[in-house]
Amino acid sequence: MEKGPDWGLDYDESLPTDDWQFQRFWPDRSVNMDENTARCQSCHSSQSGSGFLFTANRVPRFDGTPVE
User: CA-CA distance, 8 to 31, in Å (whole number)?
Assistant: First the structure.
């Protein structure tokens, strides 16, 4: 997922995304056009109180070290 100004406007207004856009990619970085991104959006909607992120509580502590 990625966030940008007005990116969530093309989603149904009953499913707000706070300007997040969802997409699935293949390992070669090409877009997986077969993915139903509504599935991603519906799951992340449960996290609307934390910016739609499941790891929002970890963001302030991130020191730049890759997570393994």
Answer: 18
